[in-house]
Design brief:
The complex is a heterodimer. Chain A has helices spanning about 45-50, 75, 95-105, 110-125, 140-150, 170-185, 195-200, 220-225, 230-235, 240-249; strands spanning about 5-15, 20-30, 35, 60-65, 65-70, 80-85, 155-160, 190, 205-210, 215-220. By secondary structure, chain A is an alpha/beta fold. Chain A has a domain at about 1-80 and about 205-250: 3-Layer(aba) Sandwich (Rossmann fold). In chain A, strand 7, helix 6 and strand 8 form a beta-alpha-beta unit. The termini of chain A are far apart. Chain B is mostly helical. Chain B has helices spanning about 15-30, 35-55, 65-95, 100-105, 110-140, 150-170, 175-190, 210, 215-230, 235-260. The relative contact order of chain B is 0.13. Classes of the chains: A alpha/beta, B mainly alpha.
């Protein structure tokens, strides 16, 4: 069975020469809940953008369920849903339009789009806001719309780039429950977050990226051994050297 | 919260995706009807009224046609060009500016589907603009639409050319100043001197080569021939130029989309 996501020797150099990702390789098995950690500017979002087609790949290969994400990009993209860090939507459109259009782009028939968007709007408690312009919504409501948009075509691989940034505690916990539920049902999830508690609670496998490369990739249990996730993360990223970490422990 | 499975149809041409692109852009256009339609209609109305009706009454017939009939194709072509260019630049630039172009980039849409979807909207807006101007002209007693097939060819072909040019400029532009540069320095001046208001014979002989070197002349001339049967210069040059530009710009645009120029990081 192919991995949900397999990245091999990925390199991304921006037009002005900045190397954002350098020889990054990682694999996410189907059904995993994968945490992708790293400091700001480490290359997490660039990696995600290369996987989803927002960025071009300089070199290396990306396979989504065994399908080459560059050569067979249309087939590969059908399997992925992305909730990006930024609100990349038409600010004048309504949540219902935004979600429906995304379903349309993915080739869903009108009846399927209606059924699925009604369900998501209800699940994410957006019913009373569904026909308001996106720009009039609060930060938390906007985040919910972005999540609904990512889920409309029921992707096999769900990529969440800081999905709970700016979200209140209630929604965060509700979202955690939902993500655990869909993961149990078989959906593979790649999650980036700066909230280590979130990664610790949800993920089974964790990778830490620093300066465009994976510096540690292991099951959560290995990260938790010793000083806990925060300590392991700081050590891996070089923010806290090993000997200090050891002394602290 | 509960989960629910959906099934996606097999991947061929993504007709639903293509239709969604068009549906979405039409909804954006309908949010700005004054800018999209009323402005060119009022502009055309003023041109028809002042140049065709007020001044035209004092000008003798040209090639057996009233002056209003003579200038109408030029006014129509100027507005078609303007509508096509503004539609395509606005469409792609605002998607880039607000970053919702990423919605189509992450979707299973091919480059060709993206280009076709955008150009379809361009043609739609141009045709709507043209219909409105024809209705205004009819109010002034001008009903000349001699050859509908030829008329549609020029409307669609010129819309395509300026739609593609607009997309290329929209991909290249980094700000609103750049977005308007082609329109200000190229499209408006060349269309105004492309034979909208006068025939080539009205120009001094030593300046006539400028008209023949102006591509806008051939498009206005072509549309004028389609509408009232009057034309100057060789019509074959106009067809060859138009088809050559469509092929060349199509290949250029496809290449830009395929490499992600202006679209992907």
């Amino acid at each position: 069975m192919p991995a949900a996501l397999s990245i091999s020797h990925l390199r991304k150099v921006y037009r002005r020469g900045t190397v954002a990702v350098d020889d990054l390789s990682m694999t996410i098995e189907e059904g995993d809940f994968f945490g992708f950690l790293g400091p700001n500017g480490a290359g997490k979002s660039t990696t995600i953008h290369c996987v989803t087609g927002i960025a071009t790949v300089t070199s290396g290969t990306i396979e989504i369920f065994g399908i080459d994400a560059v050569k067979n990009y249309r087939e590969a993209r059908r399997l992925v849903g992305l909730s990006p860090q930024e609100f990349n939507v038409d600010q004048f459109a309504t949540p219902r339009q935004i979600i429906d259009w995304m379903g349309g782009y993915f080739g869903m028939h009108a009846a399927d789009r209606k059924r699925r968007s009604d369900m998501l709007i209800e699940q994410f408690d957006l019913t009373e806001h569904a026909n308001k312009p996106f720009r009039e919504l609060s930060g938390g409501l906007k985040r919910r719309v972005i999540l609904c948009r990512a889920l409309i075509h029921d992707p096999k691989l769900l990529i969440l780039d800081e999905p709970t940034a700016g979200v209140d505690v209630e929604l965060r916990r509700e979202l955690w429950r939902y993500l655990q539920e869909i993961n149990r049902a078989g959906k593979t999830i790649l999650l980036t977050s700066h909230y280590l508690e979130e990664i610790e609670r949800l993920c089974r496998t964790i990778a830490v990226v620093a300066k465009g490369n994976i510096v540690r990739n292991a099951p959560k249990a290995e990260f938790m051994a010793g000083g806990g996730l925060e300590q392991a993360y700081l050590t891996a990223t070089g923010a806290e050297p090993d000997h200090i970490a050891g002394a602290a422990a | 919260m509960t989960t629910q499975e959906v099934s996606l149809p097999p991947m061929g041409i993504n007709w639903i995706g293509l239709g969604t692109m068009i549906r979405r852009e039409v909804s954006r256009i309908m949010r700005v009807p004054i800018q999209a339609f009323v402005a060119p209609w009022i502009s055309a109305l003023l041109f028809i009224f002042i140049f065709g009706f007020v001044l035209g009454g004092r000008i003798k017939e040209i090639g057996g046609h009233r002056y209003l009939e003579f200038v109408l194709p030029g006014i129509l072509m100027m507005n078609i060009i303007n509508a096509a260019f503004l539609q395509s630049t606005a469409q792609i630039y605002f998607q880039r500016f607000m970053r919702y172009i990423e919605e189509t980039l992450v979707a299973p849409l091919s480059y060709v589907e993206m280009i076709v979807g955008m150009l379809f909207c361009t043609i739609l807006r141009s045709v709507m603009t043209a219909i409105g101007i024809l209705v205004i002209a009819a109010c002034f007693g001008v009903h000349s639409l001699g050859n509908i097939g030829e008329f549609l060819f020029w409307v669609v072909a010129v819309s395509l050319i300026f739609g593609m040019l607009g997309l290329i400029i929209g991909l290249w532009a980094q700000n609103f100043e750049q977005l308007n540069s082609l329109n200000v320095f190229f499209i408006v001046p060349l269309s105004m001197v492309g034979g909208v208001f006068s025939t080539i014979n009205m120009l001094p002989p030593y300046l006539r080569f400028l008209a023949y070197a102006n591509p806008f002349f051939y498009w206005i001339n072509g549309l004028r021939h389609a509408m009232i049967g009057f034309h100057e210069g060789p019509t074959g040059v106009g067809y060859a130029l138009t088809l050559g530009l469509i092929v060349g710009l199509s290949l250029w645009l496809w290449r830009l989309f395929a490499t992600g120029y202006g679209l992907r990081e």
